[in-house]
Amino acid sequence: MLGGVRAFRNGTELDLGSPQQRTMLAVLLLHEGQVVQWADLIAAVWADGPPRAALGTLRTYASRLRRVLSPAAIDATAGGYALRPGQFELDLTVFRALVHRGRSARAAGRNREAAALLAEALDGWRGVPLAGVPGGYAEARRAGLSELHLAVQLERIALDLEEGRAGTVIPQLTAMVEAHPLRERPRELLMSGLSRAGRRAEALATFAEGRRLLADGLGMDPGPGLQEMFRQIVRIAPAPAQLPRAPADFTGRVRELDRLVDRLRGPGSPIAGITGPPGVGKSVLAARAGHRLRDAFPDGQLYADLRESGEDVPARFRGAFGPSGRWPEILAGRRVLVVLDHADDPERVRALLPAVAGCAAIVTGRRPLPGLPGVSWSELAGFAPDEGVELLARMAGERRVRAEPAAARRVVAACGGIPGRLRICGARLASRPEWTVASLAAWVIADGG
């Protein structure tokens, strides 16, 4: 459904017949087991007017679909047809279930879990819904499903912005605004992303463009959401707070966090380096420390993901404090924390370090970088078994995970204690209520961790 109307059995695609026959199946699928009256089916299948033997043709289509799908797939009732529940796994049903779980997780403050669930839902979207199905009925449902898709995309992007990943979503939001210039929510989120990324002038220009387009095209002013975002941006800028939000299910790392915080509260311009393999939690630990140190660095926390090679990070850092000034001299007299994530180029890091008394920096990378004097490097290891089980329990439910302690420890061991891998496992378990922890362990072990 989330693309062309297609059906598969054991990985093999089934022949669903003519466009009209596919339309009949699509209508029945969209009613999810409810009876569809013959008159409604006829109107949907033959939008330009039915043939004389429309009812007989419907019966033929139903018979053919039963042969292809299952003899029990379609029930004939007095005056209509209905799909028998439980005969299919429908991608639209899976999508809606994942979205529901994602929204519930977000309402409970579990943003990482929510983002994973919404991303999994969006991954199942294969193209234009009901592609190739003709008629006004399909067109109306296609429009509704496309609206749902856009809404879920925007929810996922809003979570990315809240987690401090403005740089990753700005291109997607820019494309959305170009495709839907009169829609206000994508423009509002684009303004937010640009502002969070230190591109305040572009954010204001985005608002001005939207106001002009709304006035010219619809004769109306921007709505409350867009106007409030504009007011937030034009107010006297607060201290920049660019750190990604630490996950609500953050667990463990008590000693590592305490040591890192103590180091950064030291005199001068301390620099702490965190190394370790991918997914071990370097970025999360750095963000957690930065949030704890907000009172020690009241003039702002700056963040850069150095994997984004094309970004002019010094310009963005300067822009966070005003239109003029050089880096790092603009920091003189300020107490600012700088977090440089995923660093692999010592020259680039050196140019971004806040070499000003009263400021501090955290640098994360897979290995220590040479030629950076004054950096105190520490290697981050994977979780101990108890810490890994605790993370799984927070993501997938205490009772569920604690009921199978041995299986939970097998999952932790198979993941090497790497929190990033454990988060993937926790999100997968949370999105599959029919799985046991032992099922998850078997999946992880079979997948090679």
Helix and strand layout, with pairings?
Blueprint: E1 8-9, E2 12-13, H1 19-30, E3 36-37, H2 38-45, H3 54-68, E4 74-77, E5 80-83, H4 91-107, H5 111-123, H6 136-162, H7 166-179, H8 184-196, H9 200-218, H10 224-234, H11 254-264, E6 271-275, H12 282-292, E7 301-305, H13 313-319, E8 337-341, H14 346-352, E9 360-365, E10 375-379, H15 385-396, H16 398-402, H17 405-414, H18 419-430, H19 437-446
Helix pairs in contact: 4-5, 5-6, 6-7, 6-8, 7-8, 8-9, 8-10, 9-10, 11-12, 15-17, 15-18, 17-19
Family: Belongs to the AfsR/DnrI/RedD regulatory family.
DNA-binding region: 1-85
Protein name: OmpR/PhoB-type domain-containing protein
Mean pLDDT: 89
Instruction: Specify the CATH homologous superfamily of the largest domain.
Output: Tetratricopeptide repeat domain
Sheet of most strands: 5 strands, parallel
Distance between the termini: 33 Å
What's the CATH architecture of the largest domain? Alpha Horseshoe
Helical element count?
Answer: 19
The percent range for helix content is 40-55%
Query: Numbering strands along the chain, what is their spatial order in the largest sheet?
Result: 7-8-9-6-10
Helix/strand-derived category reads alpha/beta
- What count of structural domains? 4
Q: What's the CATH topology name of the largest domain? A: Serine Threonine Protein Phosphatase 5, Tetratricopeptide repeat
How much β-strand is present in the residues? 5-15%
Query: Spans with pLDDT under 50 lasting ≥5 residues?
Result: none
| Text of the CATH class of the largest domain | Mainly Alpha
Q: Would you list the SSEs in sequence order as H and E? A: EEHEHHEEHHHHHHHHEHEHEHEEHHHHH
> Any idea what the radius of gyration is?
27 Å
Please provide the count of β strands.
10
Choose one word for the global shape: flat
Q: List the quaternary state of the chains.
A: single chain
Keywords: DNA-binding, Transcription, Transcription regulation
Family: Belongs to the AfsR/DnrI/RedD regulatory family.
GO molecular function: DNA binding
Organism: Paractinoplanes tereljensis
